[in-house]
Amino acid sequence: MRETKYWTWHIAAGAVILILLALHMVIMHLDNILGLLNPSGGDAIAWANVLARSRMVFFVVVYVLLLGAALYHGLYGLRTILFELGPKPPLQKMINVVFWIGGIGLFALGTGAAIAAKML
Amino acid sequence: MAVSKHYPNRLGILGWLLGGRWGIERYMYTLHRVTGLGILFYFLLHIFVTSARAFGPEAWATAMAAVHHPIFKFGEFLVFAAFAIHAANGIRLVAIELGWAVGKAEEPIYPYRTSLNIQRPLLIAMMILAAIVIFFGGLDFLSLAQAADLPH
Fold first, then answer.
1. Count of Cβ atoms closer than 10 Å to residue B18 Cβ
2. What is the chain B residue with the closest CA to A89?
3. Chain B partners of A86 at a C-beta cutoff of 8 Å?
4. pLDDT by residue (tens digit) across B35-59?
């Protein structure tokens, strides 16, 4: 049952990513065509645009949600690939522990950066 | 995820390509995994690089200068393309997983209909969608390269 729950979360995280990453891609990689949400104009990664987006609560929430969903979806996907190779139960347990610790650590790093950038 | 105790995965990663002669959906399975791993690798680096914004404009400029080389821009385009393929194929997989693209059970009357009658056109439609997104993303990357006077 627990694996079914993990799988359901994997699909749900994929749906969240589909919406939020599509928004991120439109802003960052279709900026020369659409120019959305880049208040200073020009390049989407120009500091003025990065600062403007970082100060918006909407983007802080989007970044944190996307970070969590993408970490879960990506690490669960990699875990599935590794488990299919048939590791013994102790190694499976170690993979679970490393992925949980690594995932939570990266989530803390990304969330901390999003909050710190909001304060700039 | 079910774990098989009786049938060990003898081919391992090689089974992604050498598992036998399959329909195109089997190769989409491989492509889905390859694009997923590529996106994950980029994403983990992306967290570190973009966290530099928390330390102000100088740190951001340094981080962006470190990934300014054309090879990184091309790599970014590959990740963008991988995202388009992974997302479009993911929509197809979820539609099948939830039964939306399987079709209703019905009496088998000749000419027989299979779930492939729905799934194959869905696959083609999703890949056309991915190709359109990649095309416009490519235009954006080209205009970015021209603006930065990068070789492309």
1. 9
2. B3
3. 8-9
4. 999 999 999 999 999 999 999 999 9
Handedness of CA B119, B122, B126, B128 (dihedral sign): positive
Average pLDDT of the residues in B137-149: 73
The reply to whether residue B80 touches residue A3, judged by beta carbons under 8 angstroms, is no
Integer-rounded Cα radius of gyration of chain B: 21
Burial of A2: CB neighbours in 10 Å, binned 0-12, 13-18, 19+: exposed
Q: Are B137 and A11 inside 8 Å of each other by CB?
A: no
User: Cβ of B3 and A83 within 8 Å?
Assistant: yes
Q: How far is B12 from chain A (nearest CA, A)?
A: 6
Q: Does the distance separating the beta carbons of A78 and B37 come in below 8 Å?
A: yes
Beta strands in chain A (DSSP E): none
Rounded Cα distance, B138 and B116, in Å:
32
According to the CATH classification, is domain B23-147 in 1.20.1300.10?
yes
Predicted confidence (pLDDT) per residue in B83-140, tens digit: 999 999 999 999 999 989 888 888 888 988 888 888 899 999 999 999 999 998 888 8
User: For chain B, which residues make up each domain, given as ranges?
Assistant: 23-147
> How far, in whole angstroms, is CA B36 from its chain's centroid?
6
Domain of A80? 2-118
